[in-house]
Specification:
Blueprint (H helix, E strand, L loop, with lengths): L16 H24 L3 H21 L6 H26 L3 H23 L10 H28 L4 H20 L5 H24 L11 H28 L1
Helix pairs in contact: 1-2, 1-3, 1-7, 1-8, 2-3, 3-5, 4-5, 5-6, 5-7, 6-7, 7-8
């Protein structure tokens, strides 16, 4: 049982259109930024993984020790989790040789196990109740697994099944639309709809990132990882600033 002094204000933003836009673009940045660090800066997969793992730990500590939702802290953590989640799957595929289908299955089981333990301990999976340190640790654990799962599933579909980045984008976009229909018209559980959408936005964003950045020979538009990363990162910054203005206004009252 958490005492009153151990609780804090919910540290997750409201689920709005802006939330989903930033989430989707953070997944795109995660996909393209990882490629940029590995190939353009020639850091290699192992060095990039160690570097981003260290930066992620520091960023998560900043987020965890905050007592309320601060847009730049939260979304910086999401972007870095996106990059590191991508690198986890890339390491399993490229360094260990684990097939993408196997990674997808393993991460699905791991995510279900995380949700199970979270629910048994806290009796809720709602992101409206991330108001204790324990719940926040469960939340970020689940987020990391969703990014690794989304990377594996997205790569498995677009590359392993050879349907191409554009078709993968349409597929995952269609699944998200179907989830929205199930939520608004058939009233499926809100928490279930949220987490399904959260998982699906990862392969959607990755497919969009690959479609935009990869060469035409590989089924993309040839914009390059640098341009794609910069454009989406700039959009994220603008949307986070937009989210920060109401927060600042409330703090000044």
């Amino acid at each position: 049982m958490q005492t009153k002094s151990e609780r804090f204000i919910n540290k997750v933003p409201e689920v709005t259109l802006v939330f989903w836009l930033i989430k989707m673009m953070s997944t795109t940045v995660g996909e393209t930024a990882a490629d940029f660090l590995i190939f353009n800066l020639h850091l290699g997969l192992s060095m990039t993984s160690l570097l981003m793992g260290g930066v992620l730990i520091v960023t998560l500590l900043i987020q965890l020790f905050s007592t309320r939702y601060v847009p730049w802290k939260y979304w910086l953590a999401v972007v870095l989790v996106s990059i590191f989640g991508t690198l986890i799957t890339d390491n399993l595929t490229d360094q260990v040789g684990v097939p993408l289908a196997v990674s997808t299955g393993v991460f699905t089981v791991l995510l279900m196990a995380t949700f199970r333990v979270w629910y048994v301990q806290e009796k809720t999976l709602s992101i409206r109740a991330i108001d204790t340190r324990k719940r926040e640790l469960f939340y970020w654990s689940a987020i990391l697994v969703t990014f690794a799962l989304g990377t594996a599933a997205g790569d498995w579909v677009s590359e392993g099944m050879d349907i191409g980045y554009m078709h993968a984008t349409l597929l995952f976009g269609g699944l998200i639309a179907a989830t929205a229909v199930a939520f608004y018209w058939f009233r499926i559980n809100a928490v279930l709809a949220f987490w399904i959408t959260y998982v699906l936005t990862r392969p959607l964003g990755a497919s969009i990132g690959d479609w935009l950045s990869q060469s035409e020979k590989h089924g993309g538009l040839g914009l390059g990882v640098t341009n794609t990363s910069l454009v989406f990162f700039a959009c994220i910054i603008l949307l986070v600033i937009y989210q920060s203005w109401p927060q600042r206004a409330r703090d000044e009252v």
